[in-house]
Amino acid sequence: MFNGLARSFSIKRAKNLKNNCENCDGKEAVEAMAKNAKKNDLILRSSGIVNVDGSKNLASVFSKRGEKGVNQDCCIVWEEFGCQEDMIFCGIFDGHGPWGHFVAKNVRESMPSSLLCNWQETLAEASVDPDFDLESDKKHHRFNIWKHSYLKTCAAVDQSWSSTGDIVFLANVGDSRAVLGTTADNGNLVAVQLTMDFKPNLPQEAERISQCQGRVYCLDDEPGVHRVWLPHDDSPGLAMSRAFGDYCVKDFGLISVPEVTQRHITSNDQFLVLATDGVWDVISNQEAVQIISTASDRAKSAKRLVECAARAWKRKRKGIAMDDISAIVLFFHSSSSSFEQIQPVVPPAL
């Protein structure tokens, strides 16, 4: 198979294949092969057998979950690998750690296709090498090409994990807020605000509104609460400078353009809080992080934050109707390796 395929490459076709791989066409071709192989039952990812009609090979697969929780072992058998009748790819992957099952499955899905693309590219590069002579030492060349392909594939798969799951992308319109709970160098759990509250009195927001003939000011009975008003009418009194809808002030400085940011998540980062201004009007970032970190049940941490905010409204905003209060808490690590070892102190007032 290998010899015949190698001899079938002309210099022109080899160059074209190399260019295609570099332009991702090779990857698309490999993905098409994988899709076709799956359709024809040539790929097995669970317990069972693979025995293609006319093939002398039979692959038997079985996996049994142990007593440690989720089964972190996974495997794959791909007959006629790369559309070659006498080639089979077999891979078995044993995950470890709290997310081992996820990693193992991801590697199982990505490695065969990556290997196939790298093998094609490596073979194409070798074919255009003037010093390449497959017939002179077939075993040596065959081994080196596969070795190089595996080295590239494993490096690529490993590198892909350096940017998987460790970046959070944030898009914010309005005055809801994202806050990160992270462990500082001294071991304390601290809050890091990741988004900006788009209030009308922010300098860049107020300037835009003013340039569009909108107005920003506070009502006498709401000191410190800046709102957006029409040029010649005391409405609508919107307490934010960016929002969906509110078309009556869209021509006067209100926009719906989000601020998009990203944050690299490290092992020190414990959880992310997303909450409406009903929380942040009465609860500080640090208080929110402390409330969440001392929740006895992670599943109830968002509820606990909302309930604390509701009590704070009654205490701090007497006579003012309580706003809607909502929160999401996203934890980054398993409970065994998280902030539960830290002992933050919740302010007595909460």
Automatic annotation (TrEMBL):
Species lineage: Eukaryota, Viridiplantae, Streptophyta, Embryophyta, Tracheophyta
Organism: Rehmannia glutinosa
A matching Pfam family: PP2C
Gene3D superfamilies named in the record: PPM-type phosphatase domain (3.60.40.10)
Domain annotation PPM-type phosphatase: ranges: 58-332
InterPro entries: PP2C (IPR015655), PPM-type-like_dom_sf (IPR036457), PPM-type_phosphatase-like_dom (IPR001932)
Alphabetized CDD domains for the sequence: PP2Cc (cd00143)
UniProt protein name: PPM-type phosphatase domain-containing protein
Domain of life of the source: Eukaryota
SMART domains per UniProt: PP2Cc
